[in-house]
Amino acid sequence: MKQAVRVLLSVFVAFSCLLLGTEGHGRMMSPVGRSSRWRYDSSAPTNYDDTGLYCGGFWKQTENGGLCGLCGDDWSLEQPRPNELGGKYGAGVIVESYIATTTAEIVVEVTANHLGNFQFHLCDLDEFGSESDDCFNKYPLKFADGSLKQDINTTMGTIKSTVDLPSGVQCEHCVMRWTYTAGNNWGVCEDGTGAMGCGDQETFVNCADISILSSVKSLLYKPLQTVEVPVKEVIVEEVAVEVPLEVNETETS
Q1: What one-character DSSP code corresponds to residue 90?
Q2: What confidence tier does 253 reach under pLDDT thresholds 50, 70, 90?
Q3: Structural domain of 224
């Protein structure tokens, strides 16, 4: 019986998603996400669909086994994906520096509410060298109440969140990642029943390049790096050169 309920609910979810379709509905504005940087920086490539970084869409993410690109792109795209470092929008430009602070205020703009929750993660590139799930998963960011998720209920427009920065982490280049897991799809819950918010949901992801520094001095002055330069031994041979003697005619006359 439970198996039959699961099948029916799955069909219902699929049919509902087909009817409703999907449009972009959110973006991280501070620190500004890579696809939205053009809104403040004219040198950045333009992405008018910067509210639509939802893993290629619900159907595509399902087709990819629930996987999503590190920064919201379709997982099946060739790497580096557009919003990852080295991709079209992933220039690595630092858009925000958090100096001598233990918290960060993050601003997200939600243009169409899907219920659900926000999560934030930090990837320290100084430590890991490159973006990866392991890098992001090492530093899940906690909210003021100690939780790792912020339910947004039916809130629309600008949503501000304050998160604690990881203790002891300082980086010239970190990546802040926002993940918005929607909760408006009807799906199968773990106990086999059906309910709104259960099962697979749309996922929106943005990445922003930031730094976390202990002081302004850290921003202005970087320590000198010692570079070993290999020295090639050069052997110079002594060469005897015969130099003609110049004679002063005045002295000899």
Answers
A1: B
A2: very low
A3: 2-240
